[in-house]
TrEMBL record:
The active site is at residue 147. GO terms for cellular component: nucleus. Belongs to the class I-like SAM-binding methyltransferase superfamily. RsmB/NOP family. Residues 1-297 form the SAM-dependent MTase RsmB/NOP-type domain. Gene3D superfamilies: Vaccinia Virus protein VP39 (3.40.50.150). Keywords: Methyltransferase, Nucleus, RNA-binding, S-adenosyl-L-methionine, Transferase, tRNA processing, tRNA-binding. It is found in: Nucleus. This is SAM-dependent MTase RsmB/NOP-type domain-containing protein. It holds the Pfam family Methyltr_RsmB-F. S-adenosyl-L-methionine binds at residues 2-8, 34, 94. One of its GO terms (molecular function) is tRNA (cytidine-5-)-methyltransferase activity.
Amino acid sequence: MCAAPGSKTFQLLEIIHQSTKPGSLPDGMVIANDLDVQRCNLLIHQTKRMCTANLIVTNHEAQNFPGCRLNRNHERIEPDQHISQLLFDRVLCDVPCSGDGTLRKAPDLWRKWNSGMGQGLHSLQVLIAMRGLSLLKVGGRMVYSTCSMNPIENEAVVAEVLRRCGGSVELVDVSSELPQLIRRPGLKSWKVHDKGTWLVSCKDVPKYRRSVILPGMFPAGGSYQELVDNSNCNADMGDNIGVCTNGNSEDGVQTVEEPLTHQAAEEVCDFPLEHCMRIVPHDQNTGAFFIAVLLKVAPLPATQEKSKTEIVEQNVEPLNLSLEDARALQINSSEGVLEEVSKAVPEEILNDTEQNTEDLEVSPVEEQDSKETEEPPIVENMAKKVPSKRKLQIQGRWRGVDPVVFFKDEAIINSIRAFYGIGEHFPLDGHLVTRNSDASHVKRIYYVSKSVKDVLKLNFSVGQQLKITSVGLKMFERQSAQEGTDAPCAFRISSEGLPLVLPYITKQILHASSEDFKRLLQDKDVKFADFADAKLGEKAANLLPGYCVVILDRGNRSATEYPKVDESTIAIGCWRGRVRLTVMVTAMDCQELLARLLIRLDPEKGASVNVDKSSNNVGDEP
Ligand SMILES: C[S@@+](CC[C@H](N)C(=O)[O-])C[C@H]1O[C@@H](n2cnc3c(N)ncnc32)[C@H](O)[C@@H]1O
């Protein structure tokens, strides 16, 4: 729900990919959402290393995340429509919080933190958690987490959610899971700090603070309406605030720092909040975290099931919405919450408590020039193209975001299949998407898993409710080589896509000895006649001009027997020119691969190769 910068998304992707064989994809998928588009870019950048076709990155307010529910108004139902609503097996709500759990790594928080921060975020946290639960299948689990120790952002949110769900959601006892993780039970009782006083119950909240200190922040919850109805002494409390002994004057000026010495017994929450996990810094030298696992055992009560946006959208035909309408819908739907939050919370806290490491310039607009440097020398000079901000595109439903379009150009797809010898058992139909509706100008083609394909189809049918900033694995890129304009196939395989498609390629493949492979990585460009293995030079000359793949030969094959592609296969993309092979891998990746190759050949010598680990450009070894 709140996924950027993406460390947990990366872990989730690792989990779904862990038992996948080379050349196949997991059944599962991850939708990673964040409100902040810049931070979405960070997430896209971080997860690029996973080379996954099973990820969709979206840019919504989590509390209004679209449900993409098909109803009878949606006439454009795609053929092969497998799902009629977005419902998840697992949801992670790692919500924005005041971040006091990161005090050790963000020392300036000592100065900035105040109790108003958590109170300003509480409502948003509840709304995000409720939306997460409504997107969860019955039987599914949701994790609610923060990096705060503040009960108002933790147990109070969980308790309020449980109250609103009325038995349809249970707090799971996970005390026997991850036994090595030292944790403390959640709190059952706490007080609310406001303007120098400690409030025990919502009955203590003076009238003029009731828009800020909500009943749901207290262990037993409650309602201010009840207090008004029950018009005895409680109602007077707020009116008598001018003489209140708790130290607040009527204008809200704090007069004493001492806790309120309230005679009433502390409120205790009825829910089993001890099932929540508290991780504190001094237990195992970490930051502080709060984690609660919720199980949806039945549909939520009807009043809690839908986001405001969905309720509005049910009465509007999505395809008829103008862009402005769509935008306004998004903005208006959150007004109440954001107004409240912004009163108390500095923007950087709302956005995250983790340090913003870098400002990425990558745009969600896909066709912007990428920073890749793997172009061979013969490829057109990309620098000629304007790298600055592109004109906003208004093509799909969402302003500024290129549309996601299924790529169906059969002539191109067939030419790719024929050139690389990719058989029908590698499905391309319906798995290829672009971010450009003009097929003749498509530069990049992305591969999506079946699960992602199903969600994209649903999204089309419901009028593109999802604002998708990134989807799929870059698989094919248009080739614009000057020398290779006569190359029979207009598309080369991208280094990210190569590991997935490699087991299915039967043409344009060479196997090189470690000596020749090393030479390619070192020199980047080797004439056919200069290979140590003359047969390699001959085979290279016999390939069609254009992109080809060179696989490191592990020396265990006979002349006819080709090694199978597995996790340890090392392969690189090259350009077969008139008289030479040119490596199409970044200099950094060449260096990394060289180091790996040397380790494989001679572990001692390989270990001494100096590889600059500061680069993010990790090798693309399959
Ligand atoms: C604690 S961080 C998430 C960290 C992330 N889960 C990770 O592991 O890298 C909170 C995120 O919530 C995002 N955010 C804040 N308000 C949001 C909202 N209303 N909807 C969605 N995301 C929101 C912020 O941009 C920020 O990236």
